[in-house]
Design a protein that fits this description.
The protein is mostly helical and 148 residues long. It has one domain: Arc Repressor Mutant, subunit A (Orthogonal Bundle). It contains six helices and five strands, in the order αββαβααββαα. Strand 1 and strand 2 form a beta hairpin. It is globular.
């Protein structure tokens, strides 16, 4: 199992580079955090900033700044929650939907190309392994212990 970390490091870099190359939409530069925020809102249509912060494991202040930047860029709309005016609910604008779909399509196309280069058996094996790995991460998610 000594070769696990280098594999994760390499995969993380490759996915990070994919994010960086796929997040320019219609000449608009979007940060990786902002693209993740757009994606999460696209999945749910309306969501609170606190929920986004929790899902993406972002500090609430950082998340609020990124959301405000997207609001200022015309990609998000922010409104107070009907039941609790202290809570802000964000939704995609038409422009935000277009940008989010553009980014998602580029990333999905790349992943499809990767999977198309595999046999159906390999595809199923990879998907099973990814589901298992994701489940185990969910079960064991805790920060690294500080070094003594």
């Amino acid at each position: 199992m000594n070769d696990v970390r280098p594999l994760f490091q390499a995969l993380g870099r490759k996915i990070g580079m994919l994010d960086k190359t796929c997040i320019v939409a219609n000449g608009i530069d979007i940060s990786i955090s902002q693209s993740h925020i757009l994606y999460e809102i696209m999945q749910r249509e309306a969501i609170s900033i606190q929920q986004i912060s929790n899902i993406l494991d972002l500090d609430i202040t950082t998340c609020s700044r990124q959301v405000q930047s997207l609001v200022n860029g015309g990609m998000l709309q922010k409104q107070p929650d009907r039941n609790d005016r202290r809570v802000s609910i964000v939704t995609l604008t038409d422009n935000g939907k277009e940008v989010a779909l553009h980014i998602d399509n580029k990333i999905q196309t790349f992943y499809q190309q990767v999977f198309d280069s595999m046999t159906s058996f390999e595809q199923e094996m990879v998907m099973q392994a990814l589901r298992l790995l994701n489940d185990k991460f969910e079960q064991l998610h805790r920060p690294c212990e500080p070094l003594d």
